[in-house]
């Protein structure tokens, strides 16, 4: 029998009682809780209790009639511990309650801040769209007013009679001067030429949401501008590496069917490489050094299928790929690194409302390609 176990159980039982307890009651309690074997007789247990009370510093105290209790010091210590634990318990409950209230307040404040952030994002997106519209309109208006001021000659003050009397006969301009004047007027007209772009969906940061669908053209990625190499841009276009678009066009084998063509611009090392991949023939990749070359190869294959040269072989590769579209051109021009392209001439764009196309584009419409073989294809 473990003396420590039954002794501790006895002391704990006596601490919970307010008066001395008889020996048989203690024995019954210990046996019922498994702290004392039932074979232990009351005489043996009494002898053990008496022996324990004689030990110095014992917590047990014997009373006449075999009644036992704990010493007052141990009882007081137990009550002090219970009070201390009770005090800690109340403090923890109070702390938890405060933390729950504080957490609820922080959650409410977080919801309010998120609503403010969402409202600010919507306002910023709206203001950004308006800024792009008005900025383009104001720049074009300033160019027009400047051109009109240069074309208009201010009158000189003076006596009208003296002017009429001293008028000199005008010299007829030479052919070279007339050509220069026409060239100057043409340049001024080009300066104020308007390029209209369609409105496209933007995200909260003002960036375009891909894919961008513009009629039969779908742009999946604008790519990255390589401004360090001059062959990756010209005066009119920029060829970003990674540019990817797709469009439906006439199939190479059967002009009555359509095929999805994927157009890509990849890094060819020295110069950009342009690729057109038909979905029905992924192994027949059309590769060229420029977009016009790729488009002409595709139209040549279609002419072979038709057994006639009816497809227009003029330079419209930029429109077929999509980077010649004014909307996509404006997005590429606004991309990082566009300002560092030395050969590229900056162009002005104006946002307009979307409107249906005026005519059919043969470079993007398989219906026009499937028309009579005696008809020539219109330009894009």
The coarse silhouette is elongated
Number of helices: 10
Instruction: Report the major sheet.
Output: 6 strands, antiparallel
Give the terminus-to-terminus CA distance. Answer: 104 Å
What is the element string, with H for helices and E for strands?
HEHHEEHHHEEEEEEEHHHEH
Strand content: 5-15%
Instruction: List the strand order in the largest sheet.
Output: 5-6-7-8-9-10
Mean residue pLDDT: 78
Detail the poorly predicted runs.
155-164, 356-360, 372-380
Number of strands: 11
Structural class: alpha+beta
Q: Fraction of residues in helices? A: 40-55%
Whole-angstrom Rg: 47 Å
Kindly list the characteristics that best describe this protein.
380 residues; alpha+beta; six-stranded antiparallel β-sheet; three-stranded antiparallel β-sheet; 10 helices; disordered C terminus
